Amino acid sequence: MDYKDIIKKMKDRNFEQMYLFYGREYYLIENALKVFKESLNEGMIDFNLDTIDGKETVLDTIISSIETLPFMDDRKIVIIKDFELLKGKKKNFNDSDEKYFIDHLDNIPETTVLVFAVYGEIDKRKSLVKKISKNGVVYNCDKLSDMDLFKWVKKKFDSNNAIIDNSQVMYFIDQEGYRDKTSEKTLSDLENEIKKISSFVGRENTVTKEVIDKLSQKKVENDIFKLIDYIGEKNSSNAIRILNDMIHEGESVLGIFAMIVKQFKVVMQVRQLQVEGYTTKVISEKIKVHPFVAGKALKQANNFSDDIIVDMLNYILESDYKIKNGLVRDTLAIEMLVTKYCQRKIG
């Protein structure tokens, strides 16, 4: 059964006894949990929906929640997030607890729908996984297929009141690189980009290739590379120009700070791996970034010592606090970063 069929059955209130949604596509997991919640009587939801932290809970809490009957509704939904027994870890449970819980799943009330949500991988060898699969549904929330992704993107642009033809949908998907093997992008990332583009063009206006190019994440990443390169070269005029362009095109200062931090963390990682003798290709595989990103980071490593990078990261952390507490204007904070480190001797 694919994801669409599972969701459709749930919306039709045709529920299995138990579910396990896991994987790296958190958007799909959260969407499934939303459908469960919407199936309940809104006025009685506090009585009939239990959400349990599976990393911190104990067996008695789970059993009690499962066995409690619904109140003024025909079902109760129990959601257990990141349950340790699905991940091969045992902090709060011993072997007898695990066996008792698995056996208990054969006798849970018909009015209870038990839902496990794991944000990441599971240990498929676990008896609990096999029990859930036997009694219900186990679904890996991985990246969408090409056709499903196309339909999802088109629907999201439509819901944001932006007009986009099929060729531009395909172009947007290609530019975002969601399907790339090394890409860590999720549907949440794509949704944010769709909202940004839709807001830029305005209600009932057309999304063009030029707009996608102007606002694409690849362009933003390239601009971050250029910004860091210019700072490393102590070229303040070009650094400020790139910075102003990014802000003019809708990037937030805090977002730019976050991307700088992310890139400098990559720089420090690749430098260490290069010292250990790894090639660019192996480095990119080890830290799960595109070889182009790893190559850029290796070049940037020549312009920044670890001490300077740590100093910059501390400056960004301090600026983030000041901006969020109204102590400094965001644009001034980032301009001061450029000025400070373009003047400073690097290395």
UniProtKB/TrEMBL annotation:
Source domain of life is Bacteria
The record's Gene Ontology cellular component field reads: DNA polymerase III complex
Residue limits of the DNA polymerase III delta N-terminal domain? 19-141
**GO MF entries:** DNA binding; DNA-directed DNA polymerase activity
Query: For the DNA polymerase III delta subunit-like C-terminal domain, which residue ranges apply?
Result: 221-341
Catalytic reaction(s) noted: DNA(n) + a 2'-deoxyribonucleoside 5'-triphosphate = DNA(n+1) + diphosphate
List the InterPro entries: DNA_pol3_clamp-load_cplx_C (IPR008921), DNA_pol3_delta-like_C (IPR048466), DNA_pol3_delta_N (IPR010372), DNA_polIII_delta (IPR005790), P-loop_NTPase (IPR027417)
Which Gene Ontology BP terms does the record give?
A: DNA-templated DNA replication
Q: What is its EC number?
A: 2.7.7.7
Query: What keywords would UniProt list here?
Result: DNA replication, DNA-directed DNA polymerase, Nucleotidyltransferase, Transferase
| Family the UniProt entry places it in | Belongs to the DNA polymerase HolA subunit family.
**PANTHER family per record:** DNA POLYMERASE III SUBUNIT DELTA
Which NCBIfam families does the UniProt entry name for this protein?
A: holA
The name this protein goes by in its record: DNA polymerase III subunit delta
Where is the organism placed in the taxonomic lineage, from the top?
Bacteria, Bacillati, Bacillota, Clostridia, Peptostreptococcales
